[in-house]
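Q: ABC transporter ATP-binding protein, please. Structure only.
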Amino acid sequence: MLELQNIGKQFDQKVVLENIDLTINNGEIVSLLGPSGSGKTTLLNIILGLTKMDQGKVIFNNNDLSNVAMKNRGFNIVFQDYALFPHLNAYDNIVYGLRNKKDIATDAEVKEYIDFLELTPHLKKKIGELSGGQKQRVALARTLVTKPDVLLLDEPLSALDGVIKESIKERIKSIAKEFNLTTIIVTHDPEEALTISDKILIINQGNISQFGTPFEIMNQPKNDFVKNFILRQLHIKRQNIYNLFGEKYA
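A: Structure for ABC transporter ATP-binding protein:
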């Protein structure tokens, strides 16, 4: 179980996060959802240990990680731009994190992750030869082979379209279920959050507006911000689809 207790953060005397309390059960997929500048990426970085909080605690399975270095937390992240090495092929990217930690995963376990993500035909390809969806799967495999206790994803679907996006969504859900892996996703897109998450944390101006299941968010919004943000973003998305393809697809 991951617990955030009274998390607070300021940058240049501006409050970015305030009194964030959150409990995430093992194996849950939770999306951090909100407009640009709401504090969701800062919260993700605090969980990872990349950003130091000003107050509060990060507790995982009853262990206080608040002052534990990022490399010792046992969490790992897939960044928005994948951060893959272009001079290496797909396989070498996947096993890169094992170079100095060979005991983390056996060859059989690495193969299991590769097979699970259907990457076997692409292992010898350089990164520039891969599609967006294939790059995302390589980034996921590279993270999974390190066996993180918590998987963090920063806008994992933002560069993907259509069928590929839906495929990666299903992969992420399958990973969380197959490996009972707590998964935290930053997204600005309500549709992504509603269709991939067990629970959604909606953040506005550094504060929690609502934390609940997709059903609760859609049918029992706690305030006008939640209702208006969700409906406005979904309307904008449908309008963009209509403008591109017509009413049939909107």
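A: Brief note, in case it's useful. The mean pLDDT is 88.
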